[in-house]
């Protein structure tokens, strides 16, 4: 009876810790709960009376309870895929905890400090894996997204999302240690870590202002939860034309930014389409370039997703084709196998063709880093443009297929992270929301509401210079974490031998 009660208690506690972790994320956004939820989880997996198997199960339950609500939007792509993704990522953290428990046994199960260090490193590596595997990774519902609005978000200048993830786990571990071994030195260590993380980055700016540009973002509006196959492309185009007509010459904009794939060209190319002529007329009226998201047919069963620069004279002077495609959204992985198994592959009837060009566009002498929709969740895509001299980041996107605001709010948080990592302003344009301007410190300057027709106009700063994260990327941090984990395992085995003698 007692054993059954203990299993129920640990299961419910793991669920509670996971829910608290989820609530730290947008759209809920109670970021302090991140530390509480993770600390609760660490307390559970460090209970000395529980078995290794029980600790591994707790890790899986905690992660599932965190990711299931925070990635609920994925069910719009594929319900089986959503379930499989949550299960797979929970498995990553279960494996991380299994490795931690192995190292701990070698070291000595009573060495709590050593155990927590290993867990912090192992679970951060589990997140690094989730950000890149499978199908290119799903870097959503992350600690970085939770902390983007916190005083610690500026840490991303130094190490991106991985440093924020490490900070989240490490701070929770300090809280856990302080709870189980209340000492003055532990309280001092926690305060020092929090002060350094929250204060030092505020005095560390690695870019400088080199000019300004005035941008108009056009959001045509419309109902959320509408798939492209169920909408009229002409209506979407007309919504954005009508919204654009609210911009006047007195607004003195330098260019106009339209969202991702609001121009769907069927059986022809954009340059010869009526849509180009309609948009070119608006570009000529305002005498400024337009950055327009287009979808074109490619070979049978394939399509192109691009952002083009349309000049007032109607010519297209630059183009970027999306490189990172949404699995089960813009292409169907293992289409033949899934079709043979009877999976509903017709939900994605055509596959997007991945682009091959660098993530940048040039507009009248200004270089822009381009991250189309899904790409904004990957720091490397934005950094590719920054490496090539981009002074500003644009994120044309389309979240109209998804109900609710889980994905949309996390995308704004990701735009904030990319702004901080690159020390550049970000202009995010969506057909039904959210559209936003974010400054180089990650502050949201303007943001639209969902479904409204809106034009946002802002004078943004062009900036140059590179942050430490932009220079280094993720690879050095991942390597350092592996070295730490290997060192812990070697130390643990050595300690085990010493105890055996």
Features:
501 residues; alpha/beta; Nitrilase/N-carbamoyl-D-aminoacid amidohydrolase; 2 domains; eight-stranded mixed beta sheet; six-stranded mixed beta sheet; 15 helices; 16% strand; globular
Give a quick precis of the structure.
By secondary structure, the chain is of the alpha/beta class. Helix content is about 45%, strand content about 15%. It folds into two domains: about 1-205 and about 475-500; about 210-465, Nitrilase/N-carbamoyl-D-aminoacid amidohydrolase (4-Layer Sandwich).
CATH class of the largest domain: Alpha Beta
Overall geometry: globular
Which topology of the largest domain does CATH recognise?
Nitrilase/N-carbamoyl-D-aminoacid amidohydrolase
Mean pLDDT: 91
Portion in beta strands: 15-25%
How many domains is the backbone divided into?
Answer: 2
CATH architecture of the largest domain: 4-Layer Sandwich
CATH superfamily of the largest domain: Carbon-nitrogen hydrolase
Major beta-sheet overview = 8 strands, mixed
Number-wise, the strands total 14
Helix percentage range: 40-55%
Q: Tell me the distance between the termini.
A: 39 Å
Q: Which regions have little confidence, pLDDT < 50, spanning 5+ residues?
A: none
Count of alpha and pi helical runs: 15
Encode the helix/strand succession as letters: HHHHHHHHEHEEHEEEHEEEHEHEEEEHH
Helix vs. strand class: alpha/beta
Radius of gyration: 24 Å
